[in-house]
Design goal:
alpha/beta
Length: 289
């Protein structure tokens, strides 16, 4: 059993170097790295070819965004992986403790036929950012879980969740063979990771958040947050329509349509959009004070 680590990258070469160095320090070295560089202009691909020849590098253009790039990585892994291999999605703005993959290897044995996801931590202070969430479609909200209250019977370090991000989630390779790829048509950048994990859960795979699988992340602004502090028709339009914005109304619609029970969808989408739109103006008012 081998782990295929799939990573989309776009510029930020300094993050990529730190990420790859943390992989070289893993106590479990039974893995392959697949990186799709979708249009970097900072020498990322040249550096990887020169300094990290162990990486399987895929070159593409910037039209792919996150979802298209991760799909190219998954395609490569599917072509070369064995039936019992696993696929791990990660971002290049993360760093991993040396026992990260070793912890996953233990859990693969304990929880077969499961999707295992990491607990993200702020790299600056080491504090966890979240332990995972369970989706409530009725109130259009992800409810936080805790290991103390929600852990599995007999295992205080694992909790069941309904979805997982692309920042450190491990899938049996068979999930992709059964369900296909991420939805790059409707969810080109944001939401595709959560969407796919919901699909995996409906396909019979448990989604488990694992306390000891820690991933350290550079918590940075997305590039869209500043728009919430600027009042103009253009800034507001960009905030709700840009591919780079998690508030993109079209993306939020498709995420709900793909995953929400049909009977609840009208309630879900109204509540969700009302919260996002009102949140924009509340943040704007607070920023002005």
């Amino acid at each position: 059993m081998k782990i295929w680590i799939c990573v989309p990258v776009f510029n930020r070469v300094s993050f990529t170097i730190k990420f790859l160095e943390s992989l070289r320090l893993q106590t479990n070295q039974n893995f392959n790295i697949v990186i799709c560089d979708h249009g970097s202009s900072d020498g990322t691909s040249d550096l990887i070819r020169t300094d990290y020849p162990e990486v399987h590098l895929i070159s593409a253009d910037s039209s792919l965004w996150w979802t298209g790039a991760i799909n190219r990585c998954v395609d490569y892994a599917l072509e070369h992986a064995a039936p019992d291999d696993y696929l791990l999605t990660l971002n290049n703005d993360t760093e991993l403790p040396p026992d990260y993959l070793a912890e996953f290897a233990k859990l693969i044995i304990k929880y077969p036929h499961s999707v295992l996801t990491s607990v993200p931590h702020d790299i600056k202070n080491g504090k966890p950012l979240s332990f995972g969430f369970r989706q409530s479609w009725l109130i259009a909200k992800s409810i936080p879980v805790s290991f103390e209250k929600d852990h599995l019977p007999g295992d205080v370090d694992v909790v069941s969740v309904t979805h997982a991000s692309g920042r450190g989630t491990l899938f049996p390779i068979g999930v992709f063979k059964e369900l296909g790829l991420y939805d790059e048509i409707h969810l080109p950048h944001y939401g595709a990771d959560y969407d796919f994990s919901h699909r995996a859960r409906r396909g019979g795979y448990r989604i488990l958040s694992c306390r000891n699988c820690k991933v350290y992340s550079y918590v940075e602004v997305t590039g869209m947050a500043a728009l919430r502090s600027q009042l103009s028709a253009k800034h507001m339009f960009d905030y709700f329509t840009s591919i780079r914005s998690p508030a993109n109304i079209k993306v939020r619609w498709w995420f709900g349509w793909n995953n929400c029970p049909r009977i609840l969808f009208p309630i879900y989408i109204m509540v969700d959009l009302a919260r996002v739109i009102s949140g924009y103006f509340i943040h704007l008012l607070l920023a002005k004070n």
